[in-house]
Amino acid sequence: MLSPTVGGTMITAAVGTAAVSIKEVRDMDEKKIPLMGVISAFVFAAQMINFTIPGTGSSGHLAGAIMLSILLGPYAGFLSIAAILLIQALFFADGGLLAYGCNVINMGFFACFIAYPLIYRTITKKGMTRTRLMTGSILSSVAALQMGAFSVVIQTLLSGKTELPFAQFALAMQGIHLAIGAVEGVVTAAVVSFVWKVRPDIINTESSEKSKKQGYKSVIVGFLVAALLLAGGISLFASANPDGLEWSIGKVAGDKEIKGETRVHKSLEKAQQDIAVLPDYSFKKQENAGESMGTVVSGLVGSGITVGLVLVAGYLIKLIKRKKAK
Amino acid sequence: MTDIAGALYEIKHLDELAKRDNTINNIHPLVKLIVTLSYIGILASFDRYEVSALIPFIMYPAAVMIICEIPVGKIIKRVLTLEPFIIVAGILNPILDKSTIHIGNLTMSGGWLTLFSLIIKSTLMVSAGFLLIATTGIDDIAGAMSLVKIPSIFVLLFLLTYRYIFVLMDEAERLLKGYSLRAPGQKGVKMKVWGSMIGQLLIRSFNRAQIIYQSMVLKGYNGRYNVSGGKGFGYAEGIYLPVWVAFFIMSRLINIPMFISGFFH
């Protein structure tokens, strides 16, 4: 669903944010790293538990970024979410590797660096009470999920792989995530207030964290740079995304879409032009309307033969393996 | 209710597959990481209307599965569980993309083509991701991560999270089993106990973390995680990397199925 431009930009943004977070966390007590590991694993495990959503038949589960920020602070929380998502991307292919950067930004960045400091911290600044904890957790979770959902909409549209119209897609996503955010917020609030009652020392309070305005600033600057890069990507798309009608089956497609994107692509493109005998060859075919049916058939036949070749290659590998084993 | 034991088993199983001794498992993890990433990147760069040119890319997962004797059913099963999400994302394409594609006098719906293209691409990418884990294993991936200079804090965090997942999912499963035995036939956990249940899990985890940390210190932990060197670069790496990358690039530049069918004219 993602184009490499958007996927790559978001990975860059995620790596940048992670780098800043690592810098912030580095001078932290080494003792805290195993703790971060355990808490991340805890969120991972908690994501496995389904909650019945009152009033509906459905159930949902946690994302956990706000909870991580509350327990570990925003920097360590962001790194934890990044680690969790990496494991999920590798083992459950949740979102896949290309979408990894998007996931980290959508689920981690907005929660840890916008919703947590601006909403949760502002509300609980005057001291912890149960009510403040509850409102802070719920509001920041809802806000974080709204921003994350909107960011998903934008990334999907920029990628141009689906045909969903912007307004409807955005409306549906925001609506669904309002519900999800509310559930997330209530669960977070319930858990945090329970822990606060039983083991108040675990909750990351103001005093345990020095004011780190500088840090936030650099994160936000990093994100702005990423946004600029992304904007560059958009303009590229706006001008170059070809009309569907222009498409033709025999052409080596996609060359317009990725024009000038990276050095690799550029050299690929050049190589493509150098061996342009092939695309030309099939082009001519299409212009000849009488042979069009033949083109489709030959496409199918060619595909069939390719699959056959793969099967033969597989069989050969197996054969060689068996021989070796003997 | 989510089958936690099942999920645990699935995670462990993929990691176990990587511990076996075969040609691809023994290849340097960094090489496999690069091959996987270039495979995914090149697949993603295809135009959304492309279908036939994607077919040669089946070669890579097929070859890896056969060489490593990875049960095909296992990978297919995992990919299939994700397929609904992919289909949901693209299902509106045939309705929304009313554009038609003309090949001579034959007209095709652009929407359907994009849906097919999306399904094939995602399926291949997802399988490549699974195969990376199934041939490399978590420790080696962490090793490759530190080789490309990903800060050790993150690598350590990644590894520790992975380690603790088993401990904590175990704990979570016990909690859930206790809950479901006393409240049978429920779809999920009731709202009233959300806080105390997850909170309990958190406090247990926290205590666990302290015990684990203390025992780590007793065994000489000093804030670093030492990844075993093990695999080096050799002939196998020198062949594996260029051959695959060349194959991917060639398949990207030349529509192989159309090229083959060209012989029949």
Automatic annotation (TrEMBL), chain B:
Keywords from the UniProt entry: Cell membrane, Membrane, Transmembrane, Transmembrane helix
TM stretches of this protein: 29-46, 52-72, 79-96, 111-134, 146-166, 239-264
Broad class of the protein's primary localization: membrane
Entry's Gene Ontology BP terms: cobalt ion transport
Domain of life: Bacteria
Pfam families in the record: CbiQ
CC annotations in GO: ATP-binding cassette (ABC) transporter complex
Entries under InterPro entries matching the protein: ABC/ECF_trnsptr_transmembrane, ECF_CbiQ, ECF_transporter_component
Subcellular location field: Cell membrane
Membrane topology: Multi-pass membrane protein
NCBIfam families, sorted: ECF_T_CbiQ (TIGR02454)
Protein name: Cobalt ABC transporter permease
